[in-house]
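Appendix B. Chain record.
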Amino acid sequence: MKKKIAIIFLLTIISLQIYNSFAVQRFPKPEFESGHTQPPTITPDPRSHALAVLDVFVLAAALTVVTWLVLKKRSRNGVFWMSVFAVLYFGFFREGCVCSVGSLQNVTLALFNPEYSIPITVTAFFVLPIVYTLFFGRTFCAGVCPLGTIQDIFALRPLPIKTWLEKVLGIIPFIYLGLAILYAATSTDFVICRYDPFIGFFRLDATFMMFAIGGIMLLIGVFIARPYCRFLCPYGALLNLVSRFSKKHLTITPTECIQCRLCENSCPFEAIDKPVLLKEKEERPIAVRRFLMYTIIIPVLILIGGFTGSQFHENLASANSKVRLANELINETNFGETEKEAFEITAFKASGQTKTELYTEAAKITKQFYYGGWMLGGFIGLVFGLTLVSLTIFRYKEDYTPNKGSCLSCARCVDYCPVLPENKIELNKSI
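Structure tokens predicted for this chain:
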């Protein structure tokens, strides 16, 4: 049934692309009467429909292969070589675009801006990893995402970090997710793409600063495995939530855990939940009282976060080019008298738009950021509240199990487990 759904989905993509290929150009080039000739474009031509659809097929195939390697073959070596393929194809060959991580912004912009037409292939890059994650866990992160796999290759001597620090740093991706959605929804910027630390390596054209940031991130990744995936990636935060509901997920042991503890420290991402015995459980009245207290605090944190976010709406809105231009015009006392005006001001003067119209538009955008600030702050308050509550919930566990949210399905832990399906009986007898 799942295979049929996947086939129907891919056939739908192909049909839409064929339909789009016969569409007329919506915005033809202007005709000049002064003999002006259209200058050649200085940006690369968009990728053809056929090659864009090919990228979707490669993505689907890679997701399928990695999922099979993780759940069926339980092969860490296979996942590693798929990671190398992902870096070479989606990274250096495709130059990191289209990227599932960045597609989050395209989808957000399409939802909030009816004038923006999102390509179906970009939508597929956003949806496919989420669908696979919902059924099989974060196999996209394991060996398909070029941003994650390039870090995975550099994770040579990963060291553990404190649990409390892991929890605190784990909140940052959700904050980044909220900011990325806010800036994309207001047509301000695609901050994920702008500050992608590895796109410079893939395209070999980044500024020195971005090269340095990417290099530092990889250097940190030698000792703190996948720092971007765990503590920054906004798409990873989304997959973290979806993966919690996955029906099939990577398991450390293929059959029954024998409590050998060999996998205890095998995960460089601190994503293995250790057994918790009943005797470690605190008294029920104390646990209930703490849980209720934190549950009551959550609405308070949402309101405080929302109010705080709304107070910073002007600062957030200053990143918008129109708002920034309006502020420059308002603060420009010698407008038109300087020897060299800013490019934006020069372009504005040539556009024919009045200052009043610009100020009105900027005020409308600033108001959007006011409401967006409320939602962003409330979302951050909710994340803080739920994190506090999660620390108070007792979960009885008998075995070593991957945490469905934070587990990246890299299959490192399976090599540490001595239990194999074919020798299960013999192993139990020897113990």
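Further analysis of this model is presented in Appendix C.
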